[in-house]
């Protein structure tokens, strides 16, 4: 039986643990939380931080692993280090480093001609009064889940947003970026042996912009775009992937599209979150993203052939749509795939961690999907 080490045992990692078990693997799972829910489904549990390279490397060297993977952002650095040492299949250490540092990624894109927002690297010593061409977007160089990310339209807002972003940065660094207007999308890919396949383009609808936040509220797949728009997005994403040097891994790319073209906001060398790759892609295309992640980590050939053409969506619950969403869930509509309802709260949704639940559903036609969204959004 092949052995695989999975870094992370939180709720977000449970689907990949179950998929690895379904594929007949012996699953060793690491998480610093000894009560993490994913441990229940694993064969062996390691109460070790997913960022503790030394301890995880020592374990890996003594246990004849066939693969190592994660579905989280920062553990990809550990995955890359272990894979290099043990000659396993994964992204390179350089790729992992670039994909977990927004500044390094921006610098590379700027040098290589990839469309990306203008940016400025700042720290506690930065004189914020120098930045006067609002609006800007302020974000930590090394955070995820929209934590510490805000749009600002004045110096007073900039100072507050800067302090918030700094509190989320392990490195004590913040990016101030020019705000790029436009529609938002994400692109899911796999690259194996130098060949990249675009699996899906997902449309993203955002809430919280009036308060300066950017929280994804709805994901629609496939995105409502023209063939020409798809081509523009795909070309820029492939260009960015090639420049970073991604290989033998998935990627999740965030893109903004406007009259100036497609702008790469950032690329992660992991599967997309927010139920995009665990649910939406399989529902709309039939491509098993989780299974492919396991296979690519074992050095096996992946299958990216699309087996169906449907529409899928995840709508997150927030204080404004909570009642409508709960009523829809309680109607037991046949389009619903799964859902989660959390206790109601009036708390402002500042990041994905503040959401009040979700509904995942799929339809045969776009008209059906839009009709459901009209009821619940």
CATH architecture level-2 label of the largest domain: 2-Layer Sandwich
Radius of gyration: 20 Å
CATH superfamily of the largest domain: ATP-grasp fold, B domain
Helical stretch tally: 11
Low-confidence stretches: none
> How many domains would you count in the coordinates?
3
CATH topology of the largest domain: D-amino Acid Aminotransferase, Chain A, domain 1
Pfam families: ATP-grasp_4
Protein name: ATP-grasp domain-containing protein
Keywords: ATP-binding, Ligase, Nucleotide-binding
Domain ATP-grasp: 106-298
Features of the shown structure:
single chain, 377 residues, alpha+beta, Rossmann fold, Dna Ligase, domain 1, D-amino Acid Aminotransferase, Chain A, domain 1, 3 domains, four-stranded parallel β-sheet, globular, metal ion binding
Structure description:
By secondary structure, the protein is α+β, with helices and mostly antiparallel strands. The chain has three domains: 86 residues, Rossmann fold (3-Layer(aba) Sandwich), CATH 3.40.50; 61 residues, ATP-grasp fold, A domain (Dna Ligase, domain 1, 2-Layer Sandwich), CATH 3.30.1490.20; 194 residues, D-amino Acid Aminotransferase, Chain A, domain 1 (2-Layer Sandwich), CATH 3.30.470. 31% of the residues lie in helices and 27% in strands. The strands form three sheets. Strands 13-12-9-10-11-14-16-15 form an eight-stranded antiparallel sheet, sandwiched between helices. It has a four-stranded parallel sheet with strand order 3-2-1-4. The chain has a four-stranded antiparallel sheet with strand order 5-8-6-7, with helices on both faces. Strand 10 and strand 11 form a beta hairpin. The mean pLDDT is 95. It comes from Bacteroides fragilis CL05T12C13. InterPro entries: ATP-dep_AA_Ligase, ATP-grasp, ATP_grasp_subdomain_1, PreATP-grasp_dom_sf. This is ATP-grasp domain-containing protein. GO terms for molecular function: ATP binding; ligase activity; metal ion binding. It holds the Pfam family ATP-grasp_4.
